[in-house]
Design brief:
homotrimer, about 260 residues, alpha/beta, Rossmann fold, six-stranded parallel β-sheet, two-stranded antiparallel ribbon, 10 helices, 8 strands, globular
Chain lengths: ~260, ~260, ~260
Amino acid sequence: MESDERYHLPADQRLTFVLVHGSWADAHFWDGVAAVLRSRGHTVYTPEYAGHGKDPNKDVTHAMITKSVVDFITKLNLHNIVLVGHSFGGTVIQKVAEQVPDRIKRLVFWDAFVLKDGESVVDEFPLQMRQGFEQLRASSKDDTLMLPFPLFRDSFVNTATLEEAEQMYASITPEPAKPLFEKLDLKAFYALPTPKSYVYFYQDNAVPQGEGFGWHPHMSMRLGQYRLIVGDGDHFTTAHTRPAMLAQKLYEAGRY
Amino acid sequence: MESDERYHLPADQRLTFVLVHGSWADAHFWDGVAAVLRSRGHTVYTPEYAGHGKDPNKDVTHAMITKSVVDFITKLNLHNIVLVGHSFGGTVIQKVAEQVPDRIKRLVFWDAFVLKDGESVVDEFPLQMRQGFEQLRASSKDDTLMLPFPLFRDSFVNTATLEEAEQMYASITPEPAKPLFEKLDLKAFYALPTPKSYVYFYQDNAVPQGEGFGWHPHMSMRLGQYRLIVGDGDHFTTAHTRPAMLAQKLYEAGRY
Amino acid sequence: MESDERYHLPADQRLTFVLVHGSWADAHFWDGVAAVLRSRGHTVYTPEYAGHGKDPNKDVTHAMITKSVVDFITKLNLHNIVLVGHSFGGTVIQKVAEQVPDRIKRLVFWDAFVLKDGESVVDEFPLQMRQGFEQLRASSKDDTLMLPFPLFRDSFVNTATLEEAEQMYASITPEPAKPLFEKLDLKAFYALPTPKSYVYFYQDNAVPQGEGFGWHPHMSMRLGQYRLIVGDGDHFTTAHTRPAMLAQKLYEAGRY
């Protein structure tokens, strides 16, 4: 994996990445990874979407989030893109792909939701955790969900040191709840012939690994034929502490 | 993982470990790991329990084993402990946690049984293996189980050299059978709010990995919210040949 | 794993390997691995079988393929062999083992089919992929299956560079279809006491990893008691680019 390709990539192997972050994150989530990919000759975009980053309005729908990314791609007139979704971003690239399929070379899901037609994100959690999310939602004044630190520490950054965990926790903000509870129509997605990849990190337990649950193979197998790339990491820490490793895995998932 | 924290751990990150071994082992199982953890500034206890080590009486119950560990903890008046169970030791820390919950900072299951309420250890094996254990039990004069070498070599020390396998086999003694067949009341355990971690080694096939079986995710997911740590190793060899790696994983599972 | 045993193996630890390749491959698939194993003191045979290599006749049955390997073993009067099957080769060693059980020290399945009694290879694929194979078969003039490059690239050589993928694709030829669709009588296999190992590479998605599908644990667990060895690799690339790693894993699976 430490081959020369990283540093002397021929022009025809340089890719255009559009990286779509997940919940409790904003576009800065990708800063380290994007820098590595650019240093290897790739073009990288990290669109922000509704309800996140500097957007003061947290009252957003899944359609508004999707529109943010679609508008970003069409305004810049991007083509032949490797569209990467992380976590909740998986549901976003599912819907974006329905709207601009001709602009997409390949979809890459990195520990990302691949929802079934008619399903919501919270449908993919075991009952006890789903009820936990519902309680968090009910106790919010502005219909957002904030992860308690113990849950974040054990489920999102399980491999981090305490210092790293606290640093990452300091950067997260309450997440608009509604898009996580919306059931999505994905019939068009499942008719798309777009090539797909799934990147799975085997210490990622943010959605519990398990019988009838989990990123891979439970959700990945819904993609039908796809390219599998596996690595060692958890849900949030790797982007922060090992961006070069993550960049390499995303490249392996996206390349020709 | 080779960070400075290993060697210059601040006082507030030093942990108190209580390590509970599994079947066909005694407290010396932990010698290598305990030495590494102590060298990094942690306090480590490795209690022996009824029917094991120098105890000549093999006619023991699960309750007697639990009592050995509870008594050890209370007599030394230990608090804020990271209580680690390996293999059968998982069932022991489940029951110990019911009795001294206020003394436990976190439970760590390392390729350990997490039994359902009302279940026994042998209930977690496929039918063919359960019958094998029953035959071993029936052929014993003192109600103990001895692992035949071929089973031990392929299921417990699959990654070892033959020389290492024979060396480890020389140290095992017949295991009291009764505690493996006892069905445990675990209602109190499942009501405990104690934080939990699961350490999974992906070459560990001592309980067969599989659909409806296995350490992880089959048993780990019973913990509800927990911290997952994954590493490369099998059931017995790692403690013998790579104690520093195992110590690091247990630290990652137990730290704040 | 980089221990001295690799290079100074005592005579009583030298093994006799018979390596049986899978579909879309011929005996040259093993060239790199065989060279490494021989350099470490092992004896290695890589029999070609009916319908493959220089055999112009593609109209073969599973029984003819099995006979090729059985005849190879009996003509050379081999004994105490470690019989390794890769992919489709798993079904071949299942049938070979039925015919010459006394010559076999251990069976090693490396990301290989372990069929149930009465099952065919295509029965182990999800419906959509099985239908894809049926369409490929229907469109063939000589009842062979040729993998389209996109399927080969994403499912067989997912971790390869594009250059490596194209190089490996150039070496594959259409595969006789019939043996993949034949349902095999395996009652005798499942009565054999022969020791068994399963080598699983966790980036191998050639048979989709998943709930109710996949190399491991879905098919491996049919072996009952077996030795598990896990490594990092995909279905075809590792033999090509990292033969020493693969040789070490096969040695760990086959050794005493």
